[in-house]
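Exercise 7.
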Amino acid sequence: MSKQKRVKDQFNWTPPHEQKGRFVFPLSDKVEERKPLLWLVRTNSEKNMVDDVFLVNLTGEVLDMVAAGNTGFQSIDDEEQVNLISGSRFVYENVETNEAVKVEEYDGILDYDSMLGITLYIKSKKLGNIQIGTDVKKGGVENMVLLWDTGETGKKAGVSEWDDD
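Solution. The predicted structure, written as tokens, is:
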């Protein structure tokens, strides 16, 4: 069962050139000088096989509203698929800076073969009303930057304005 969850100062972003890969080499040779404003973190829970995905707010402002839903599809066979789309399963108000809110959860068994993504609706004074969508990925999205401090979107993310009327 999906329950809302908020955590403060729990996730720290580390640029890829400072992260060590499997063989102790950096994950990237390119030095990343940009800082993320919004990014997703997927927790790994081997105990109950359910991973939570959090949106981390590093914008420096309180986000008035964050709503999250999922999108994707599941293949039945080579010729048939079932579309998986939900409304806003998680809705939060007044998301503080350095606060992370749960926006999705993935079951390691049930969601393993599904192609899943996340759609976020965010209201803020600085960003305005924006919609952010991720690419769909088998088993669900992983850690990813959605929006950089330069105004650029992260790889595999799309940002657009939306009218809440």
